[in-house]
Write a structure and sequence with these properties.
The protein has 109 residues and is of the alpha+beta class. It has one domain (8-102): SH3 type barrels. Helix content is 19%, strand content 39%. The chain has helices at residues 34-39, 92-106, and strands spanning 8-13, 25-30, 42-49, 58-63, 66-71, 76-79, 83-89. The longest helix has 15 residues, at 92-106. The termini are far apart. 24% of the residues are buried.
């Protein structure tokens, strides 16, 4: 398997989960930088969902004809073995919106 790259959407097996973690095998956006993805066995991902919540940590996305959100409040580091297959990439605008939201989430004010 070739390594995942940032802004790619992969089908990821998220189970087993606990509590309110997003579960099932679902599309997830790769968040970790390519440098990390080349050298580590884990990948930082954010699940994508069609359930819309008005949280500031959710970014609107349109992927494969479906509207949904990237759930940045559900970031996870997963082993590459959980990656099932690459599905595509998000638009440049969505990628930028995700980066901007992550910066806002982790900024120290």
């Amino acid at each position: 398997m070739s390594g995942p790259q940032r802004d790619e959407v992969w089908l990821v097996a998220l189970d087993p989960t606990q509590g309110v973690e997003i579960q099932k095998t679902r599309p997830c956006l790769v968040i970790s930088p390519d440098e990390m993805n080349r050298h580590l066995r884990t990948v930082v991902i954010a699940p994508m969902t069609t359930v819309t919540r008005s949280y500031p940590t959710r970014v609107a996305v349109r992927f494969q004809g479906k509207r949904g959100q990237v759930a940045l409040d559900q970031l996870r580091a997963v082993d590459r073995q959980r990656l099932v297959r690459m599905l595509g990439t998000v638009s440049a605008k969505t990628a930028q919106d995700v980066s901007t939201t992550l910066l806002e989430m982790f900024a120290r004010t």
